[in-house]
Amino acid sequence: MLGRTRSSLLGTLEEKLFHACSRGDIENVKYYLEQGANMNMICSTGRTPFGTAAQLGNVAILKIFLDHCNDKKIPSKKDVKRTESAEEKSSLGNFVFVPKGSGSESSSKVDENLNSRYQEVHCRCGKLDDVCLGKSCEHCKSFMSAINKTTYDLACFNDTFVRRDPRFKSRNESDLLSDEDVRTPDGMDGLEWDMEVKGSDVSLAGDDPCSALYIWYAGILSQTSALLEEKPPPKDIDREDQFGCRALHYAAVEGHVDAVRLLINAGCKINVVDLGNLTPLHMAAARDVGEVLEMLIAAGANVHHKTTDKISPLHVSASRGLLNNVRLLVEAGAHVDTLDSSDRSPLFMAVSRCHIEVVSYLLSQGAKVNIEEIHGYTPLYEAVSQKNTTIVKMLLRAGAKITQSHHLLHYAILHRHEEMVRLLISAGSIVNLRDESGDTPLILAAKTQQPNIARLLLESGAAVNYTNYITGNTALHEAIKNMRGGTQVFEEMFRIFQEHDVDLEVESESGYPALYLAIFLRQDDAAAILIRHGASVNSVFHNNPCKYNYEMFTSDLFHWVLHRGNYQLLELFIHAGYNIRNAHIPKTTTHPIERWIVHLQSNPMRLCDLCRIKVRSLFKSKVYKMVSRLPVPPAIKTFLKLEDIN
C-alpha cells in the first residue's frame, strides 16, 4: 500500500470517483459507485469523495451518495471473504474485559456464564475443551497458577482483567503456522517461537512470569493488525478524512446552505470535531452566512463547545466582525465572557480588530470590560494600541479602568495621537508616571518634538523639571538632543517650558546643564536661546567629555566656544556677564573679537553693558518674563534681552 505511486493511486476507483466529484460529473459518480467505489475512502489529496462533494456544495452528487447509503444491498462475496480472512488472522483467540467482582464468587459466576455460552477454548496444550480457561488439563492449571503468582495487575481475577474469549474458534498451531500464511525469512529457519515448539514443557512459573503478559499482548496485536487492514465503511455519512473533517464541516465552512440542510436532514452528526476540535458550528461562525448558523443551532449544535485552544464559536464571529452571527450565538445562549486558552474574551477579540459594531453589541449585552488576558492586557489596552478613539470612548463609558503600568499615555504620545492623549488624561492617566526607561510623558513629548502635547501635559499638571531616573535628563535636555524639527520647533517648545518655570541649571547624571549639552552637540542656536533667557555662562565643569582630547580640553564653556572659533557666541557670552578675567587669550591675537576681549581684561565695559549684566543677574532664568513686565520702552527691553546681538 505504501509503495504505490501517485499514478497507481489515480487509477483506483476511489481516485476516479474523487475526480468525478471535483468535476461535477454525475454520470461517472453513479458509474463508479455501481462498480463498488467507496465514497469514504481517503484519496491522495487527504479528502474523501463524499467530503469533496460537500465542499463544492454539489447537492445533486450529495443526493446520489445519500441514496447510495440508504440502498441496503446483500454483501458481496468479496466483502464476506474479506471479513472471514480478517477473523482467520487471529492466531491467539479474542479477549474480553471482565468487570471487577467481589471475591471468588464473582469470578466463578463469570466462569459459569462463559461455560454456559461457549463450548471451545484454545488452551496452551493445543486441545479444545468444553470448559473455560484451563479447568480441564494440567497445562491450563499451570498457566492459571503462574498468572496468580505474578506481580502484575493482570494476574488478579478480582480486578478488571482481559481473559480469553472462546466465542471464536481458533486454529491449531499447525494451521496457524502453515506455509500459506507465514513465510520464514531466508537464513532464519532455526528460529522458533515458544508456541511452535510442540511437546516441550514451557513452564510459565518460576523464572519467566512475564510469559502470560507476552501472550496477552500478542493477542491484542494480532487482532489490531486485522482491524487496520479493514477499509472504512462505505456508507457512513459521518466518516472523517485525513484532516478529521466530515462532510458537514466542509459544507458549513463554505457556506453552502442547501448542502448543509441536506446533510442535517440526512442525519449527519452536528457536534463532530476535526483534528483541531473544530465543530461545523465553528466553521459556520467564520462565514457571513447566517442561515447556515441558524440551521446548525436549530439542529442542536453546542454553542459552548471550544477548540483545542478553547476558542468558542462566539470568539470566531467576534474576531471577524460578523455582527449577525454574534447576535445569533448570544441569543442561543453563548456566554459573552467566555475565555480562550489565552484568557481572551470575545470583546477583547473584537476590540483588537477594531470591529466597532460588535464591540457596541457585546457591551450592550453586559460584557466585562476589565478582564485581563494572560499577559495582563485589557480591552482598553488593545483599543489604545489600535489607536481607535471611538472604541476607547465606548470602553471608558462602560467603566473601563486604566492600568497605569501599561503606560498607555506614553504609547499615545509616541504615536503622536493628541486626541488619545486627551482621552487618557481625562480618564485618569498619571501625567508624571515614568515608564521602564525612566521617561515621563513630558520627556517623551520633548524627545518627539511635540509642542502641542507638551503644552497639554503641562496644563494637566506635568512637572517640567522632572528628570529621567536613569540619565537625569529633563524635558529640556531631551528637546536639545532631539532638535530634528529645527530651531523654530525648539523655540516653541522652550517657550512652553518657560511659561511653566523651567530650571535652566538642572544637571543631568553626568553633571551637565542644558547650555553645556547644547554647546557640546554644536546646537549653537539653542545655546544662544538659553543664554538670552538667563542660562549661567560662568559654570565650571570638571567632568568634561573632551578631557582626553587635549586640543579641546577646557574648564569652562567660554574656552570651548573660543577653540571652535564661534565668535558670535563668544560675544553673547561677554554681554551675558562672563568673567573676563578667566579668559586665556594671547595678547598677540589678530582677530577683532579676541582683541576686544583682551582689551576688556584691562579696561572697563560700557556703563549700559554693565547695567544690563546687573539687571540680568537679578532676574536670572526669569529675565524674559520680568523684562517683559517692566514699564520701559521696547528698545530697552530688546537691549536687556540681548536681542540686539545677532
UniProtKB/TrEMBL annotation:
SUPFAM superfamilies: Ankyrin repeat, SOCS box-like. InterPro entries: Ankyrin_rpt (IPR002110), Ankyrin_rpt-contain_sf (IPR036770), SOCS_box (IPR001496), SOCS_box-like_dom_sf (IPR036036). The keyword Repeat applies. One of its GO terms (biological process) is intracellular signal transduction. Residues 588-646 form the SOCS box domain. Keywords: ANK repeat, Repeat. ANK repeats lie at residues 243-275, 276-308, 309-341, 342-374, 375-407, 404-436, 437-469. Pfam families: Ank, Ank_2, Ank_4, SOCS_box. PROSITE patterns: ANK_REP_REGION (PS50297), ANK_REPEAT (PS50088), SOCS (PS50225). The keyword Calcium does not apply. This is SOCS box domain-containing protein. It comes from Menopon gallinae.
